[in-house]
Structure formats: C-alpha cells, structure tokens
Design a protein that fits this description.
Distance between the termini: 33 Å
Largest sheet: none
Number of domains: 2
Strand content: under 5%
Structural class: mainly alpha
Oligomer: single chain
Radius of gyration: 20 Å
Shape: elongated
Order of helices and strands: HHHHHHHHHHHHH
CATH class of the largest domain: Mainly Alpha
CATH architecture of the largest domain: Orthogonal Bundle
CATH topology of the largest domain: Endonuclease III, domain 1
Number of strands: 0
C-alpha cells in the first residue's frame, strides 16, 4: 500500500448505524478483553505501568522491554527512582531511544506523584495527563489495562483502522480518541480497543491490508475510495 495515497483519500465517516454494524461484526470476529489483561508491558502495579508506557513512546516493543527490565532492576517506586541521577536512568533506558528526554520526564513524573498525588497514580484521564510525559494515548492505555476502565485507547493500529474504515475521520490520534469517545456505542467501549487492535494486526495491516476478504469491506470507506468506485450504499446507511 502507498502511504501517500492513503493520506490523500477523502473517505468521510460512517453513519451511526454503520458504526454500530461495524462494531457488531468486530465483536463476532475478533477476540475481546481477556480476564488476565495486564498493565502496559505486563507491569504489576500502576507506577510501573505508567513509567513503562512513557518509555514506549517511539520505541519498538522489544526495545521498550529491554529498557523496562533495566530500569526496574534499579528502582520500582517514585522515591527509589529519584535517588537515581538522570545519567543513571538514561543509561538504563537507552534501548528505547530518546533516553535523555525520557529520563528527565521520569524524574519529573516521580516528583509530581510524590508532591501532588501522595505517591498514588491517578486513575482519571485528567489526572494521568497532568503527569509529566503522559499524553492522551498513554493515559487511556493505563486507564484501560491497569484500571480496567471502559475506554478505547488509540495506538498505531487503532488509529489506522478507525480512519481507514471510517469509524472516525481524523488526522491525529488525540482527535481520533475524542471522536471514539463521542461516537462509539456504549456496549462496545469495554472491548473495542481489543477488537480494533487485533483487527489491525491480522486483517487491516499497515502495508498489505487484506481488503478483498475483509468482513468489513462493504462498509469500509477506504476500500471503496481506493477501488475507484463510488461509496458503498448499504442497509446501514442513514436515510
């Protein structure tokens, strides 16, 4: 797939009935939240979850995992972390990239937890995003996986899938997350992230999406537009 082509396709968004049908099919074909779903990078507590999520920014999973192991071998609480210097943290997390900037963010995050939150990681989006280095995506991931909230976190896969299909029609991950929060059917909020994530990994792939056999291709705005065909009119279209 040509990424530049994808960026220029004018797709438009699905109607409310079409979104409902898309999520119904996703719920049938894709696995949902598992009972043992854990925090980011399988960390055992909220502090390590939020720090792990911070480290994962612009980093491959294998590199994040190496950084996480090295860092938490040195410290596992905000107080212990602040006993380390910027250089010590940066050396430990070097595999994940941007290590000097992330080291400073980690120390600032730990200080904020101690000074402003009594060493307790906030459970709300607003509280999490008040922490240094934590944006909307990381906050939603921690809320979903660590605090078991019904929220659809928008990572790379979810962003791609939603804006290809037409579940949203946005240019940034944060705007996509806001659109999903506004428009997703209530019954789909708990497992929606998991359905979309698995769909993006198995069918709606980044470079070679399996459009011809996809169970959503009659609804998909990108499929219709890139086949030089008019948008599909389905029984789920608003009238």
């Amino acid at each position: 797939m040509d990424a530049r082509r994808e960026e220029t396709v004018d797709r438009g968004a699905l109607s409310a009935p079409e979104r409902e049908e898309a999520f119904r099919r996703l719920s049938t074909h894709m696995p949902g939240r598992t009972p043992d779903a854990k925090g980011p990078k399988d960390q055992p507590d909220p502090f390590r979850s939020v720090v792990s999520c911070l480290l994962s920014a612009q980093s491959r999973d294998v590199n994040t995992a190496a950084a996480v192991r090295a860092l938490f071998a040195l410290a596992t609480t905000p107080d212990e972390m602040l006993k380390l210097s910027d250089d010590e943290i940066a050396r430990a997390i070097k595999p994940c990239g941007l290590y000097n900037m992330k080291a400073k963010s980690i120390r600032r995050l730990c200080a904020a937890l101690i000074d402003e939150h009594g060493r307790v990681v906030p459970q709300t989006r607003e509280g999490l995003m008040s922490l240094p280095g934590i944006g909307r995506k990381c906050a939603d991931i921690v809320m979903s996986f660590t605090f078991d909230e019904d929220v659809i976190a928008v990572d790379t896969h979810v962003f791609r899938v939603c804006n290809r299909l037409g579940l949203t029609d946005e240019r940034t991950a944060d705007k996509t997350a806001a659109a999903l929060e506004r428009d997703v059917p209530d019954w789909a909020r708990r497992d929606g992230h998991f359905w979309l994530l698995q769909f993006g990994k198995s069918i709606c792939l980044s470079r070679r999406p399996r459009c011809e056999t996809c169970f959503l291709n009659d609804l998909c705005r990108w499929f219709a537009a890139t086949r030089d065909a008019p948008p599909v009119t389905s029984e789920y279209q608003d009238t």
